[in-house]
Amino acid sequence: PDGGIAKEHLPVYAAASHYLVFLHGTTWANKHWPEDYWQQLAKHATQADYQILLPWGNQAERERAERLATLSSKIKVLPKMSLTEIAGVLAGAKAVVSVDTGLSHLAAALKVATIGLYGPTNPALTGSLGPSQIHLAADFSCAPCLKRRCQYQQPSAVWPVCFSTIKPNLVWQQLESILRI
Q: CA-to-CA distance for 171 and 51, rounded, in angstroms?
């Protein structure tokens, strides 16, 4: 599909070049990839000399972004932005890593390579469409459950437990394959 968005009409985010965008915020608590996984992925990316930009939409997302930014001077928490401003940031990214959120669809409409992380949701139903969209879906007994709240009752070091099957090293390998193109 063609999103019909003319990149030349978007504001240019000039404060960075050679950057990735991590879309870490979403509405359902169980669609959040574990924060320590974001940390591990950020370490891979910053060691490969990428800057990481972190948009946010509410206070909890801002606080998560600020915690991630403490890992490296190459990680930047963006200011509060309009949708048009975020589109400008996405348009200039080398790639995006995203949980299941509306902004991943905007990245796809802008034809930005995106790795989507799907735990309780099904990328066949809600996945971003477009060129260079990679969907990593949880391979767990109850996934995709399509539920707003995780029903899994067993102890787990990872929450939501379905994301235990989408490890940071796997995401980094997929991201490297995109970045080499």
A: 17
